[in-house]
Specification:
Blueprint lengths: L13 E6 L6 E6 L4 E5 L14
Length: 54
């Protein structure tokens, strides 16, 4: 959830979604309003500054 993250006053909340393991692992955030945004995968850049808008 969004407790304790930077800029949490602008966050609408979300859930961390981790799929796979090892080199196939992907991490994303599922926002309360729907939709999922990738945060990390072995193939792509880190996207840790994403937040779910209110």
């Amino acid at each position: 959830m969004s407790s304790g993250i930077d800029d949490s006053n602008n966050s609408g909340g979300g859930a961390l979604h981790i799929v796979g393991s090892g080199s196939g692992q992907k991490v994303g955030v599922i926002c309360a309003k729907g939709g999922e945004t990738p945060l990390w995968s072995p193939q792509g850049p880190e996207n840790s500054n994403v937040f779910c808008a209110r």
